[in-house]
Design a protein that fits this description.
309 residues, alpha/beta, 11 helices, Arc Repressor Mutant, subunit A, two-stranded antiparallel sheet, D-Maltodextrin-Binding Protein, domain 2, 44% helix, 3 domains, eight-stranded mixed beta sheet
């Protein structure tokens, strides 16, 4: 990437976020450094690029023109890197991925390990947060792509289902239910239950499922509310209550026999894990490779034969 290229990137980010402080967060530069890059461009073209009024920043007519061309120039640079990469066969670069909790902690690590075996030169950064946070990071350009669970509002982004996730009941091996393969949803309120915190995608899903079977949260015997799947699994192993988690999240414990998984008799609790991206993103060669890798990945193998981390 040329130096000018970097300056244009900074300029476009300021133009899009209308904020020097947001730009410094996204591009990992200090605010004074961002201002200096813009100043350098203004000196180069001998004109102001931004109108800085009291509380907002907007592009000047010259800024508008520079912005239009910059988008094209940056897209061309991305194409150029891709073409040369094809010739040299070497794919470098870095990818920043945002992932919601279950995906980031239980699915992504195995995938990244396998991907790095094929592409040792590509750097990967992962940011983990709930689905809403991942969408915020995507909209502000911090991440190249996001992996989220559950529902997403589809404005400005492209959503594609990646895999189906199944939520199921977990009980300790000494629980009377442990010998059963299925259990009726209507039995759940009889047992002490460990619930995820408000605002968690998993919790929303559990509430929706129970409500469909006429069970309100107030009907449940909530023993504990915990903010993470790891602590929920430990509480269940310790016999404090039962809970509902993603099959992905419990795959280690199921394998070692410290937890038993039970499917509700009525119907399975299914949701999609989705890939989200900006609608018309020009993606780098590295991101391209990663996308085709995750789209053709044998996810079922991870769940069934105990492969993966």
């Amino acid at each position: 990437m040329a130096m000018e290229d970097h300056k244009l990137k900074v300029f476009c980010t300021v133009a899009e976020t209308k904020s020097f402080s947001k730009t410094s967060e996204i591009i990992h530069l200090t605010q004074p450094a961002v201002s200096l890059q813009i100043q350098a461009l203004e000196e180069l073209y001998e004109t102001k690029l931004f109108d800085r009024s009291s509380n907002s920043i907007s592009l000047t007519p010259a800024g508008e023109v520079l912005y239009r061309y910059s988008k094209d120039i940056l897209a061309l640079y991305a194409e150029l890197e891709k073409e040369i990469g094809k010739i040299t066969g070497l794919i470098k670069g870095s990818i920043t991925i945002g992932a919601s909790t279950t995906l980031g902690n239980y699915v992504l690590p195995s995938i990244i390990v396998d991907f790095k075996k094929n592409h040792p030169k590509i750097k990967i950064n992962v940011l983990i947060g709930n689905t809403k946070r991942v969408l915020d990071l995507l909209n502000s350009g911090v991440i190249d792509l996001g992996l989220v669970e559950g529902e997403t509002a589809r404005h400005k982004i492209k959503v594609e289902s990646l895999i189906t996730d199944e939520l199921a009941l977990i009980v300790p091996p000494f629980h009377p239910w442990a010998k059963k393969k299925v259990i009726s949803v209507l039995e759940i309120p009889k047992e002490p239950f460990i619930m995820r915190e408000e605002g968690s995608g998993t919790r929303q899903m559990i509430e929706k499922y129970l409500a469909a079977h006429g069970i309100k949260i107030s009907d449940m015997r909530i023993a504990l509310v915990l903010g993470g799947t790891e602590s929920i699994k430990e509480a269940v192993e310790g016999g404090i209550g039962i809970s509902i988690v993603s099959r992905w999240a419990a795959r280690k414990e199921i394998r070692y026999g410290s937890l038993k998984l039970i499917t509700p008799k009525e119907e399975k609790m299914l949701r999609d894990f989705s890939l989200v991206m900006p609608r018309n993103a020009v993606v780098s060669h590295a991101v391209d490779e990663f996308l085709s890798f995750i789209k053709s990945y044998p996810y079922e193998d991870l769940l069934s034969d105990g492969k993966g981390q």
